């Protein structure tokens, strides 16, 4: 037993504080639909996300569920390749795929999850893996992991401190996801499906008020609900509806609103193709400008600054949309700051300066870009000429301006939330090892949390 920060601590093997259950060691047959199967690629820090899992049939699900039936707050750990990664079970409707293992806690599950992600346990994992080509963490090594113990009350408090940070970060991510979905829906309604225009046409045909119909299409409200909107909002909604025509015309891209046109990415956007600086100018010491060679550092919306460059060649400006132009072509992120881009990326900005229109236009073109993933001599790619020649619509400038005003507020809130997530992550990564090692007292960490969250 050790005295740490005035609190007694000792160690228990993981097998003493949890049941460790291995997955079946076989590759299943996947299905188009069915039950989620969690593989190593699905396991990341935080709550287990089942949204991108492969699916298996009822029969396969039953076979892979015989050993282990998931419960909320169980822990999943990876064993092969990307070993030692953990996720906390939230939705228990899945089965374990090979090379993953379930940890069923007998103590506070949040505390155990935190302990498993501490440097003290991570170092044990690194020391325990075997294999030269593909590193493997054995079931015995997992069972033998030494978990620092402080006693129930202290462990509960540590779990509460760090879980509050993670939960706040998760809430911000959910808010951001909702905001992006709302923005994408508005973009699709205005610039893809032309719903306000179609609503005006239908109303005009039926002898109804076209402007009122467009207001319903834009707001998502019924005609009766419009009467309950405050006067100022109603005036603005009416002005927005007036921006859309009541006629569609033929074009090479199909029917488009009257007065709009067909153009190309090269005409509508400022396009900067990346150029890779000399390799000796790269570093991970934060010297110079953030550098992105390709999509490797892409995250949900903003890339993570991992590599820097002291002799940048090509720049993306803050707010530019970053587009992967080498396999996989079409992945999109936004530049949070001025950064250097390598040959795997292009930076784009609509000539109107509308960041939101740029971002959501390129998000909409992701399916188009998938065609390029089978081209190129070594891997899929798209060159500058092909990129600039892609046909797109040319909307009315007033529609773009209103879209920028409306969605710009969403995007700013997303950026603010992402910055807070980054700060919370840094705080968690600072407090976690200090709490588990006893370097910082629990009451001090609790005070820090109250100031931040």
TrEMBL record:
Alphabetized, the UniProt keywords read: DNA-binding, Endonuclease, Hydrolase, Nuclease, Restriction system
Which Pfam families does the UniProt entry name for this protein?
Methylase_S
Q: Which SUPFAM superfamilies does this chain map to? A: DNA methylase specificity domain
Q: What is the lineage of its organism?
A: Bacteria, Pseudomonadati, Thermodesulfobacteriota, Desulfobacteria, Desulfobacterales
Family statement drawn from the similarity comment of this UniProt entry: Belongs to the type-I restriction system S methylase family.
Which residue intervals define the domain Type I restriction modification DNA specificity in the entry? Answer: 11-181, 317-421
Gene Ontology BP terms:
DNA restriction-modification system
Q: Which InterPro entries match?
A: Restrct_endonuc_typeI_TRD, Restrct_endonuc_typeI_TRD_sf, Type-I_RS_S_subunit
Please identify the protein, giving its name as recorded.
Answer: Restriction endonuclease S subunit
Lineage top rank: taxon: Bacteria
- Source organism of the structure: Desulfobacter postgatei 2ac9
What one GO molecular function would you report for this record? DNA binding
């Amino acid at each position: 037993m050790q005295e740490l920060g005035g609190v007694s601590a000792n160690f228990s093997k993981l097998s003493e504080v949890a049941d460790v259950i291995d997955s079946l060691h076989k590759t299943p047959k996947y299905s188009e639909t069915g039950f989620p199967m969690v593989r190593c690629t699905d396991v990341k820090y935080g709550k287990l996300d089942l949204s991108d899992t492969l699916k298996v049939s009822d029969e396969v699900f039953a076979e892979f569920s015989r050993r282990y039936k998931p419960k909320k707050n169980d822990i999943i750990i990876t064993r092969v390749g990307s070993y030692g990664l953990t996720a906390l079970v939230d939705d228990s409707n899945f089965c374990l795929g090979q090379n993953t293992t379930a940890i069923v806690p007998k103590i506070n599950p949040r505390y155990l999850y935190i302990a498993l992600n501490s440097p003290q346990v991570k170092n044990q994992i690194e020391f325990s893996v075997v294999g030269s080509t593909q590193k493997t963490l054995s079931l015995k090594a997992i069972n033998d992991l030494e978990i620092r113990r402080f006693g129930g009350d202290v462990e509960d408090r540590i779990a509460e401190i760090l879980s509050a940070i993670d939960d706040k970060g998760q809430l911000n991510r959910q808010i951001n996801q909702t905001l992006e979905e709302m923005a994408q829906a508005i973009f699709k309604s205005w610039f893809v499906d032309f719903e306000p225009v179609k609503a005006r046409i239908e109303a005009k045909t039926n002898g109804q008020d076209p402007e009122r119909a467009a207001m319903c299409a834009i707001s998502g409200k019924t005609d009766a609900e419009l009467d309950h909107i405050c006067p100022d909002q109603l005036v603005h909604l009416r002005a927005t509806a007036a921006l859309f025509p009541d006629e569609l015309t033929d074009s090479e891209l199909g029917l488009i609103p009257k007065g709009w046109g067909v153009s190309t990415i090269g005409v509508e956007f400022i396009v900067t193709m990346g150029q890779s600086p000399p390799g000796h100018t790269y570093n991970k010491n934060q010297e110079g400008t953030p550098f992105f060679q390709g999509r490797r550092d892409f995250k949900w919306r903003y890339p993570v600054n991992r590599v820097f460059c002291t002799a940048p060649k090509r720049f993306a400006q803050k707010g530019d949309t970053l587009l992967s132009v080498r396999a996989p072509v079409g992945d999109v992120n936004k530049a949070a700051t001025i950064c250097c881009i390598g040959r795997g990326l292009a930076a784009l900005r609509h000539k109107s300066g509308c960041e939101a229109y740029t971002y959501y236009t390129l998000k909409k073109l992701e399916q188009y870009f998938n065609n390029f993933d089978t081209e190129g001599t070594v891997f899929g790619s798209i060159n500058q000429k092909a990129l600039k020649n892609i046909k797109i619509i040319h909307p009315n400038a007033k529609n773009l301006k209103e879209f920028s005003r409306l969605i710009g507020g969403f995007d700013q809130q997303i950026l603010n939330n992402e910055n807070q997530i980054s700060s919370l992550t840094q705080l968690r990564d600072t407090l976690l090892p200090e709490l588990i090692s006893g370097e910082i007292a629990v009451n001090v960490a609790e005070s820090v949390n109250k100031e931040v969250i």
